[in-house]
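Objective 1.3, modelling of assemblies. Example input:
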Amino acid sequence: MSNAIEVKNLTYYYSEGTPNQVAAIKNVNLAIEKGTMVGIIGHTGSGKSTLISHFNGLLKPAEGNVFVDGEDIWQSKETLRGSRFKVGLCFQYPEYQLFEETVFADISFGPKNMKLSPEEVRERVLEAAEFTGLRKEMLDKSPFDLSGGEKRRAAIAGVMAMKPQTLVFDEPAAGLDPSGRKELIKLIQNYREKTGCTVVIVSHSMEDIARVAERVIVVNDGEIAADGTVDEVYSHSDELRKMGLNVPEITQIFSKLHDMGYDVPGNVYSVEKGAEIILNLIGRGCR
Amino acid sequence: MVRDITFGQYYPGKSVLHRMDPRMKLAATFGMIIVIFICKSFPALGLMTLFTLVAALLSTVPLKMILKSIKPVLIILIFTAVLNVFYSKGGQTYFSWWKIEVTEKGVNTAVFTVIRIIALVVLSSLLTYTTTPTMLTDALERLLSPLKVFHIKVHTLAMMMTLALRFIPTLIEEIDRIMNAQKARGADLETGGILQRAKALIPIFIPLMVSSFRRAYELALAMTCRCYTGGEGRTRMKQMKLAGRDIACLVICLIVLAGVITLNIFFKKVI
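Predicted structure (tokens):
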């Protein structure tokens, strides 16, 4: 089976041909299998957003190739355009892309560009709206009258309505409060369970990534610094710290406890799980 | 695509032109542009071209960048050249067919005008290549300060200009971002007729407008919070001082002006 996204020897420069030329991506090789949930983490300016902009051909690599569904996307105009529908990219602060008069019209922008029939478009919009928790009466409102969180969800619905095989989110929870973050991550998880599509989440929050991703790719300075399961990657906390990343606090506490000889695992990534383990431990001690 | 706009972009460097006092640079550029229009004969224009070339060499800005600045006016150049070739008549006829005639005068005027426009564009882009926008507006504010006598708020005007210039790269970045977001939703910006393409811009301009207004309000608030009240009593971090090279520039400009006037008198007028 072909990979959802495959990147071979990808190199990209910023301001190519001027004295300010900088290599943003340096000879990156990467394959994302179908149906997986991958997290990409990296410090601000590490090149993670630049990397994902190659996934649907928004940026043209200076060197190397990008394959979507086994097809080189820069082969022809059709494959390039096809990649836009196969890989749905949801940028950071997607609420700034809203423009239509009503939320309904805005969500239908993508499906309409796919030249679907009006009925199909309508169906998809309603489905995406339901999924992102937008109530029916909201669909007739102007997107500019929604609250911040609702705007974000409307924008995400706009990408989901295209039903891409792969969904890429760039910092989907940026600027949301903790409960909003959790809700959104949950929403993405649910969506994936329901549709079985490939999901890539870019974030600098190691906690969010640990909660959902099966595989973690660490990008540092335009290169892939680590690639593996959450446990594998997060066990190198010292190296991560050197790249300006921090493993979640709860993980730090548990690995210390583990080192001190307590009977706890060293790989705990969420407070809920941690609380459970500690309660268990105390419970046992009392007995 | 949007990033390709080079007109009015600073090119970092340490040349004499970069180090010159921006007030002198601004005044000199303005003056020399007028001198370009004083040129009436080919030798005078030649002197002006020489001046432009020397300035371009001194700036250490690569030739490629300078040529890029001419690109946007290419259509105007071709248009004026064609119009001049056919419309000004006189002297020897090189070519004639039906009512169309190409004469010596026509060709001369066309060449003259084209060189003139190129010199004009190159000179003004040299100014923006070697001067940061903030320095430029600062210089403008200082040069216009005598207008305060007429109750014109020079500082406010300069501040508005600084802000406008400051936000050009931000807006370009923003357009880029919005374009990418809409392209990711399958927006097609490259194909179709004019009407279709104009329509395709709506999804870009509406979010751009919305965020520009938001930015403007935020900026106004931030400025108020820092007690900005206008130009009264403000001092500068970077004081401008005229140096030897600025005086030298002034002298050279005056010599060129004198040269142009002399050459105009002694040689045949083209325009």
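Chain B touches chain A through 21 residues (CB under 8 Å).
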